[in-house]
Amino acid sequence: MKFTRLAAFLVTAALTAGCSGSTVHTPPPIPTPSPALIPALADPPIRLLYGADEDNVGDLYLPDNGADSLPVVVMVHGGGWQQRYDMSYFGPISEAVADRGIAVWNIEYRRGTGDYRDTLADVDNATEALANTVQEAAGGRLDLGRVHVAGHSAGGQLAAWLAGRHTLDASAPGAQPKIMPRSATIMAGVFDMARAANIGGDKLVPAFLGGMPDQVPDRYRVASPIEHLPIGTRVTAIHGDADKTVSVNQSTAYADAARAAGDTVDVVVLPGAGHGDFTNSGSVAWRTTVVAIAAHAADVE
Predict the structure, then answer these.
(1) Would you list the DSSP string of 48-59?
(2) Which residues of 121-141 are buried (b: 16+ CB within 10 A; e: fewer)?
(3) Taking Cα atoms as reference points, which of 277, 183, 273 lies closest to residue 235?
(4) CA angle 267-270-275, nearest 5°?
(5) What is the torsional sign of CA 71, 72, 78, 81?
(6) Which pLDDT tens digit goes with each residue over 271-294?
(7) DSSP 8-state code for residue 102
(8) Which of 122, 199, 213, 219 is the most exposed place for a label (fewest CB within 10 A)?
(9) SS3 of residue 279 by DSSP
């Protein structure tokens, strides 16, 4: 696989870690992208429905660069799978990614006290909609061979789940997908839901899945990305070492397990960064994420 200069700040430091892994503890300065990779600002987003529920909506951002073939990123917001958090907080970063010449599909999904399978089915259906509803709205400009996913926190769990859902049994939501991501960029994601519930004391995970791991083990196996390895999809996990909401160990432990299974994972650990930094456009976490997504999307095998 070839990597652009945009990706160099991620992979160069990663490779220096050698066989022991690719954890970046102090990222080098973010390079200035070539002007050719920064087109005119994206058009206003197009609101689309991908299902029958009121939360089955998404915003499509199309760069105003006249390109006939666009990579596309499915953006999955976080918020602990709670109803009070919605896709609006991912609007600014979606626009920032689209301004780099990448189509962005910022999706909503069912959250709150409903069935966790509905949430998984929604993010799967939203991704599968790239082949029809979203492609039609894009005028056929989406390159479905260059689909990428990105998510923050609980949305990181869902984005990583999307990247590995092809490994699920046929009875699981999202099994046998037609649209497969080429990469996943995960911001402070929950990769191991059992670990979060048992060790991290996370109350939102058992609330989402309807019990603790020993009570509903099958649900944890279906929903937890670490259970689906290997997935054959490149993952970049970005995490702040000052995160008090989701431990950085979620990213590092997933990377160790994924590499042991034969997958490629890059981990970027940001000194002093907290959980909310990924929503702050002035933060290193934000800039690192935008560049990482752009690097993956610009990469052509």
Answers:
(1) EE-SSSTT-EEE
(2) bbbbbbbbbbeebbbebbeeb
(3) 183
(4) 100
(5) negative
(6) 999 999 999 999 999 999 999 999
(7) -
(8) 199
(9) helix
Q: Is the dihedral of CA 223, 229, 234, 238 positive or negative?
A: positive
Short-list 69, 75, 123, CA closest to 95: 75
Q: Which amino acid is at 170?
A: A
The answer to whether the peptide bond before residue 33 is cis (omega within 30 degrees of 0) is no
Q: Domains, the chain, ranges and CATH?
A: 5-298 (3.40.50.1820)
The C-alpha atoms of residue 202 and residue 116 are separated, in whole angstroms, by 16
Cα four-point dihedral sign 263, 97, 189, 8: positive
Helix, coil or strand: residue 7:
helix
**In whole angstroms, what is the distance from residue 150 CA to residue 184 CA?**
6
Phi, psi of 65 (to 5 degrees): -120, 0
**Residues 205-258: tens digit of each pLDDT:** 999 999 999 999 999 999 999 999 999 999 999 999 999 999 999 999 999 999
- Residue 160 in contact with residue 229, Cβ under 8 Å? no
Q: Is 237 helix (H, G, I), strand (E, B) or coil?
A: strand
CA distance 176 to 152: 24
Distances (CA, A) of 218 to 117, 180, 190, 228: 12, 24, 17, 13
